[in-house]
Design brief:
This protein is an all-alpha fold. It contains 3 helices and no strands.
Length: 88
């Protein structure tokens, strides 16, 4: 899966789950202020991403540093690349 496909899947999953507006889905969009998610939504977001990509992210240290949609993109791309390297 290409990085662009990963970004598209993240965006479409979050748009569907949280009824977000497509035009707000920019890498600079902040999770809380721009997208309007709260701490309970973050738990749901983790579940949505785990289901979409079929890997666990709850215990990952980097998850706490996520502030923007771009951070989510980079985190998931990095996690996917890390898992693919382990599979080689």
């Amino acid at each position: 899966m290409t990085d662009q496909k990963i970004i598209e899947l993240i965006n479409s999953s979050l748009i569907e789950e949280f009824e977000l507006e497509t035009e707000k889905m920019t890498p600079e969009a902040t999770i809380y202020e721009d997208l309007g998610l709260d701490s309970l939504d973050i738990v749901d977001m983790v579940v949505v991403l785990e289901n979409a990509f079929r890997f666990k992210i709850r215990e990952e240290d980097g998850i706490r540093d996520i502030r923007t949609l771009g951070d989510i993109h980079r985190f998931v791309i990095g996690k996917k690349q890390s898992l693919e390297k382990k599979g080689d």
